[in-house]
Amino acid sequence: MGEEVAEYQGAYKVSQGLLERFGPRRVIDTPISENGFAGLGVGAAMVGLRPIIEFMTFSFSLVAFDQVVNNAPNMYTMSGGQFNIPITFRGPNGPAHQLGATHSHATENFYASVPGPKICAPATPRDAKGLLKTAVRDNNPVLVLEAELLYSSKGMVEPPDEELLIPLGKAEVKREGSDVSIICYSQTVPLALKVAAQLEEEDISAEILDLRSIKPLDENSIFNSVRKTHRVVIVEQDHPFCGVGAEVCYRIQKNIFDELDAPILRVSQEDVPMPYNERLEHAVLPNADKLLAAVKKVCYA
Amino acid sequence: MTAVQPVEQRDEVEMLSLMLLIRRFEERASQQYQAQKIGGFCHLYIGQEAVVTGAVAAVRDDDYIITAYRDHAHALARGTSANACMAELFGKETGCSRGLGGSMHFFDKQHHMYGGHAIVAAHVPLAVGLAFAIKYRGEDRVTLCFFGDGAINQGSFHEALNLAALYKLPIVFICENNLFAMGTSVKRSTSLKQIVDRAEGYDIPGEIVDGMNFREVRDEVAEIVDSIRKESHPAFLEVRTYRYRGHSMSDPASYRTKQELEKYRLDDPITRLRAQLTREGKLTNEQFDQLDKQAKETVMAAVKFAEESPQPPLDKLYDYTYADGAMEPDRPPARGNSAGTVRGRAVSKCG
Lengths: 301, 351
Hints:
Largest interface: A-B, 55 and 53 residues
Radius of gyration of chain A: 19 Å
Largest sheet of chain B: 6 strands, parallel
Radius of gyration of chain B: 23 Å
Oligomer: heterodimer
Distance between the termini of chain B: 75 Å
Number of helices of chain A: 11
Distance between the termini of chain A: 51 Å
Order of helices and strands of chain A: HHEHHEHEHEEEHEEHEHEHH
Number of strands of chain A: 10
Strand order of the largest sheet of chain B: 2-1-3-4-8-7
Number of helices of chain B: 12
């Protein structure tokens, strides 16, 4: 359910073919009323349906903030455990390309600071499928934060007849390495992989850990990687103040401080609203130059 | 589907005793609030009893109801025990929301009472979702969505009405117009001459109902619900009522006159139904006194029950955030770090 999901086949074609396959009873166009249809989903979930609500982008989910933050995750607690809300909110999240300040929000840190929702941010087609399926089956509100710039990416996925369920709260080492851990998710995964290839040429072996889920956070995988490399750079697509990296950083220093050989660095957006100008946008976003510089700094290279 | 209780057989004397229970419950809640047994905000329903009682008398037990924060009466009317309601106000584990919801967040799944929602109009989309599920599953239930006159100027209200009309959902929007959104009168908040006209903008049929008259509310709701069960559609009722107390316990209601309050008190919904029943020979004064005594006793017993009930246990704090068990809270790993040392080096003393 969402704007343009049925007859238009999805603003980004994510729901292409679903109307034909499942019919108008299950694939439902809505008016532009984010608060209304997000709330409708929560209400339907109260009596046991499992709605998938699409936000055309998560920047528009801010119009439905009250439903996503106040109604969906609070219901289970407020009702003393009587009403769980098995709902999935999904859609593209994070900056795309020259969309300006209102359409470039990376919302993961807003939502992660609220107790109740689970949050994942897939970076590959396989993860996108496996995490979405898990999200729909979860008995709690789950936010599946996709990325517009990754919609065109290609990758191996198990054949449709094979059940692909990727658990929430499990990170994945996308590349093994020994000198530094680059912790990333969503759009920063391909960025980190690109930088790791460049670092290889300079004899720096980077391990790429894709969080895949922001909440629950896979502490064990993070700690295991850090115990191996002793150096950490977190590259995230959100803002620096109270960003996802701040939480990761806190947990590492709190739990395995002894393992660190250098201060942890974070590469994120700059703390400014997103400018439209392409050159300025590039300067605001986490990019390869910033990530390379951060890695070299923690490696004292 | 659960057993159907024929609407016509709801006994009026029984409904009068429900109104008495609501009133005595709220009076006692007020007293217990002043005695600091109840925390947070507390919004009383005194004066509005005929609205929820009349509406509930017109529907089946398996129909859905959902309301805003002035919700004690809606739970009681649905069949939630006075014990569970009072215990919730006391924040006790035996409360209808296990003491985790409080006055504004009463829930009772068993009785199809879907809350208890404290952000004004935020539950109206939820109500539309309940109605959506009814239609999706091909059931003949109806959703009753209660809200105050303050809700009709919120965006979520408008979005929800449009969705309900667009998808032709089985829902009755019941605006309990008690003339004041907190301290702001309808005249100062709403551009319309009458609230019911909001419905017209969404092509939803609407009626004005005298909310101080139990029978009128019941008959109007019954008629609409009957029509909805035949063919799914939304409807809107502006039910004109009055709350005798302030918006919440902290509000002396100095924005209105004593004369206005007295005028409504003379039209009291309980007195009115009592008079109707007495006139028709269905109720004697003795019987009424007996009903009132019973209501008072039930509420006193509820206070005792709430007092004696246990607090929600501290060790269950993490159990009600996620439906499939507690997410691991942020704890240090089992392998302890010896504080004061850094790997391979001693920490130099400060100073």
